[in-house]
Design goal:
Elements lengths: L18 H18 L3 H10 L16
């Protein structure tokens, strides 16, 4: 299962340690967390899209011990 890459909709600031860059990162992280923790299904979808779990619910090869 291939995951389509999403196009960036915002421009990356030149100085990633600027206050605005940090603020934008925190907002994006909060939105990502909110999206991924709404339900068990949405959490699993995020984990599959991230390549941690397969579509069938098993850990991918890189995360198995």
């Amino acid at each position: 299962m291939r995951v389509k890459e999403k196009k960036r909709t915002t421009e990356i600031p030149a100085d990633l340690s600027s206050r605005e860059a940090v603020k934008r990162f925190r907002e994006a992280a909060a939105e990502f967390t909110k999206k991924g923790t709404r339900s068990k299904e949405s959490a699993m979808k995020v984990l599959v899209e991230s390549g941690i779990y397969t579509g069938s619910g098993k850990l991918t090869k890189n995360y198995r011990s």
